[in-house]
Structures are given as structure tokens and as C-alpha cells.
Design a protein that fits this description.
Number of domains: 2
Largest sheet: 7 strands, antiparallel
Number of helices: 4
Helix content: 10-25%
Shape: globular
Order of helices and strands: HHHEEEEEEEEEEEHEEEEEEE
Radius of gyration: 24 Å
Distance between the termini: 61 Å
Amino acid sequence: MLHFYAYIFLFSLMMPVHLKNTSDPTYKKTIAQWHQQRIQNLKSEQGWLNLAGLFWLKEGKNTLGADVSNDIIFPAGKSPSFLGSISLQNGEVSMEVLPGKEIFSEDKSISQAIIFSPSLSSPLTLKYGSLRWFVIKRGDKYAIRLRDLESPVLQSFSGIKTYPIYEKWKAKARLIPPSENKKIAITDVLGMTSMQEFAGTLVFELEGKEYRLDAVDNGKDLFILFADQTNKRATYGAGRFLYAEKPDNEGNMFLDFNKSINPPCAFTEFATCPLPPKQNFIDLAVKAGEKNYGKH
């Protein structure tokens, strides 16, 4: 009998990796469904796959259309040679349409309109054919972000490869909030740095070791930019994004790295992605979530 229990004990020592790499079928189904919704979001009109241009505005008048003489050059075959102009004046952006050209805001044809202003709750989106455009602000700079609902990138998209789903990558975490209201410096791919609301530091364990990640307050949830040892090989070179529900009253929550996603810059050159702060590098290969996509 002693030999039997000794065998069982030795067998158990040989099994931890296998046991850790198991997941409840319901959990795996939940993550799979979540990922499918993520794919649908990417493919939607508001997703990242249809971006077709990013044009930084100069103060004053900026002409737009398909002709190369314009300041803002729209895709050939998608726009008339000249559509009109966009003017930037002291933080306010307006659109003036050339006679005979039909540009829409929602379902209403416009001849001129303010499309970005501190007084507007959100930028106005304009439409011409399959094209959509609106203003984004980064630091003290303003740009036109262009979408093409018939984008070749969107049409050729066939999904994102992911790691197998294992519950070991869902870690219980504790949020240590700052002692006072604080902001954290986040730099983007353009080299611009912005100060974001610092939610606190998340403390958790993976593979038996403690790690820490700083989180940004994203309103209804927490936003975590992190890098790990899989970057540049299996996952996006600069790191990945992770969103998490805010903690309970005692500061406890979960970080599910199976929901780690590529930043928009993995799909398009027209995004302005934030980069993980240097303290958010995990000295571990986090083999969970989305793998790299494309060559951006």
C-alpha cells in the first residue's frame, strides 16, 4: 500500500503543467464568444480595419479631394478630384463643401458645418460614398481620420490567431490605489506624451511569481498597457492591451490575460497607439490572448 501511495505522489509531481493547462469548458466557451465579439467590433464601421488615412491639419485652410494637389488626398476612385476644404482656427475645425458636391452628416446634406469644437460633445462624422471622416486631437495637434467602408484591409481580414485558452492566465489581482489623485505619463507611437488618470498598481501572481502593472482609469473599467517576453516574436512588438473590470470594495479583481489584444497599430498604419510605460514590462512569456497580426 505504501508503494501505491508513493507512486501516486510521484505521478502527481509529474502532472502540474498538464493540470494547469486545463480549463472549464464553460470558461473556454465564454472566452471564445468574447473573442468573436472582438472580431465583430474590429469589422464594424467604428472598428480599426477600415482606416484609410490620417491627415494632420495646418492652421487655416486645408483642401481635400482625390487630386494630388490637395492638402488632404482622398483615395483615387472614392472621391471627386476636389470636394471642398477643412479649416482649423484656434481649436475649431469646420468643413466647407464645393458647390455640386454632396457630403452628408448622418442623413443630412451639408454645405458647411463645424465638425470639431470644444463646445461639441463629440466630433461630427462626414460621409461621401464609402468614405467617412472626422477630427481627432492628439496633444495640441488636430487631424482628419479617414475610414473607407470598402477598405481592402477589411475585405481581406480573416481573423486573428490566438493562444490556447487556459485558466491559469486568469489571475486574481489586488489594486493598490494612489495615496492622492495622480496622473501617469503615456507616450504614443508619434512620440507624444499625455497624462492619463492613474488608477493604481495591480499586484498579482503568474506562474508562482508576483508581478505589478500600473493601470489607467478608463471610466467604466481599467486599461492596462503591458509588454512581455512574447513581443516581437509571437505577439505585437510594442506590447498589448488589456481591459479589466474595476475592483470590488476590498480592491480585489481579476486580470484575464486570455483577453489580451493587439493595439490598433497592428492592423493599420493610421492609428496613434499608446505604448506601455517601462514599468509595465512582465519578465515572463504571457502565452495568452491574441498573437501578432500583419506587419505594422
